């Protein structure tokens, strides 16, 4: 197993730790930072999420730079991304930090695009990620981190930047999903 795949597996291994920290009612106290009360468990989970998200960039960097792209990596990398982001968004709903309807729309888009990729793969077609898809991912990661950090460090501004970034992530997620289907609709047409 090469280094990029090991990095991807480390991301997958961080997911259960992230889930446990946010799901089990640990009482590690809170930090009062300006107008924000930040539970330490949310801060620790946010750091774990951020580190796991960085591994996505790192494994891709190594795979491209050293020409270590493998079928296992093509399978594991998007799977790890979907698992991490889906787990985070679902836990944010449980913690009442994100509206369920937004999370449902975001996760639905991810399932739809994954389904399209599976259909394409069955036809021997590889559908590459678009630049809009990459921007979408960055916006999702940013919104999750800001929500976990309870809008810190932007709480001083008095604006819910975390919620604003979540709505931006929703728009970009929807836009990239529509774009993906429009560009690749030929995959869905029967050849018979």
UniProtKB/TrEMBL annotation:
Membrane topology: Multi-pass membrane protein
Superkingdom assignment: Bacteria
UniProt main location, coarse: membrane
Enzyme Commission number(s) from the entry: 2.7.8.5
Reaction catalysis annotation: a CDP-1,2-diacyl-sn-glycerol + sn-glycerol 3-phosphate = a 1,2-diacyl-sn-glycero-3-phospho-(1'-sn-glycero-3'-phosphate) + CMP + H(+)
MF terms in GO: CDP-diacylglycerol-glycerol-3-phosphate 3-phosphatidyltransferase activity
Localization annotation: Cell membrane
Pathway linked to the protein: Phospholipid metabolism; phosphatidylglycerol biosynthesis; phosphatidylglycerol from CDP-diacylglycerol: step 1/2; Lipid metabolism
GO CC, alphabetical: plasma membrane
TM ranges: 12-28, 40-62, 83-105, 164-182
Tagged with keyword Lipid metabolism: yes
PROSITE patterns xrefs: CDP_ALCOHOL_P_TRANSF
Annotated keywords: Cell membrane, Lipid biosynthesis, Lipid metabolism, Membrane, Phospholipid biosynthesis, Phospholipid metabolism, Transferase, Transmembrane, Transmembrane helix
GO aspect biological process, one term: phosphatidylglycerol biosynthetic process
InterPro entries: CDP-alcohol_PTase-I, CDP-OH_P_trans, CDP-OH_PTrfase_TM_dom, CDP_ALCOHOL_P_TRANSF_CS, Phosphatidylglycerol_P_synth
Pfam families: CDP-OH_P_transf
Main function: This protein catalyzes the committed step to the synthesis of the acidic phospholipids.
Record family assignment: Belongs to the CDP-alcohol phosphatidyltransferase class-I family.
Record protein name field: CDP-diacylglycerol--glycerol-3-phosphate 3-phosphatidyltransferase
Species assigned in the record: Pseudogracilibacillus auburnensis
């Amino acid at each position: 197993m090469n280094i990029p795949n090991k990095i991807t597996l480390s991301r997958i291994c961080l997911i259960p730790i992230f889930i446990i920290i946010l799901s089990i009612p640990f009482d590690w106290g809170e930090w009062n930072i300006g107008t924000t009360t930040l539970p330490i468990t949310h801060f620790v989970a946010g750091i774990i999420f951020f580190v796991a998200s960085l591994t996505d960039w790192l494994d891709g960097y190594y795979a491209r730079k050293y020409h270590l792209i493998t079928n296992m990596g093509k399978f594991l990398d998007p799977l790890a991304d979907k698992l991490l982001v889906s787990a985070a968004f679902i836990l944010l709903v449980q913690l009442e930090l994100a509206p369920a309807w937004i999370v449902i729309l975001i996760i639905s888009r991810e399932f739809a695009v994954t389904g399209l990729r599976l259909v394409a793969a069955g036809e021997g077609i590889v559908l590459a990620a678009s630049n809009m898809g990459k921007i979408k991912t960055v916006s999702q990661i940013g919104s999750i981190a800001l929500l976990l950090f309870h809008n810190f460090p932007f709480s001083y501004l008095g604006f819910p930047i975390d919620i604003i970034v979540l709505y931006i992530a929703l728009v970009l997620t929807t836009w990239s999903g529509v774009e993906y289907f429009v560009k690749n609709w030929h995959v869905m047409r029967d050849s018979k």
